[in-house]
Amino acid sequence: MIVAFSVSPLGVGEDVGEYVADAVRVVRDSGLPNRTDAMFTSIEGEWDEVMDVVKRAVAAVEARSGRVSLVLKADIRPGVTDGLTSKVETVERHLAQDTRSS
């Protein structure tokens, strides 16, 4: 399973990077495969372990903010591993074919 999520504090102003870093730190310390970009952090693993990490990441932000926003999207596909890498590699392979046929 891959979960892409975004957690942000509410009511703390525009600069939320410090709070988001607390959440990302939880994800990276989990040892599960993960990626962070400008909008989301994606994490891969089994349902219970991924959801536990998301819960702890939210708690890390909530500890410093009275209100938290969470956006979550999940790709639940039993038996698939290394989806964080393989999904991107598939898209890149198709893009590379486009440039060769031009």
Description:
With 102 residues, the protein is of the alpha+beta class. Helices cover 47% and strands 23% of the residues. The chain is built from 3 helices and 4 strands. The protein has a 4-stranded antiparallel β-sheet, covered by helices on one side. A hairpin with a 4-residue loop joins strand 2 and strand 3. Helix 1 packs antiparallel against helix 2. The mean pLDDT is 93. This is UPF0045 protein. InterPro entries: MTH1187/YkoF-like, Thiamine_BP, UPF0045_domain.
Quickly list its features:
102 residues, alpha+beta, 4-stranded antiparallel beta sheet, globular
The level of helicity is: 40-55%
Listing every helix as H and every strand as E from the N terminus to the C terminus, the arrangement reads: EHEEHEH
Please tally the β strands and state the result. 4
**Mean pLDDT score:** 93
Judged by helices, strands and strand pairing, the structural class is: alpha+beta
Please state the CA-atom Rg, rounded to the nearest Å: 16 Å
How far apart are the termini? 36 Å
Q: Estimate what percentage of residues fall within beta strands.
A: 15-25%
Strand order of the largest sheet: 2-3-1-4
Number of helices: 3
Domain Thiamine-binding protein: 3-92
Protein name: UPF0045 protein
Family: Belongs to the UPF0045 family.
Organism: Streptomyces albospinus
Briefly, what is this?
With 102 residues, the chain is α+β, with helices and mostly antiparallel strands.
How do the helices and strands line up, and which of them pair or pack?
Elements (H helix, E strand, L loop, with lengths): L1 E8 L7 H13 L4 E3 L4 E4 L2 H16 L5 E8 L7 H19 L1
Antiparallel strand pairs: 1-3, 1-4, 2-3
Pfam families: Thiamine_BP
Family: Belongs to the UPF0045 family.
Protein name: UPF0045 protein
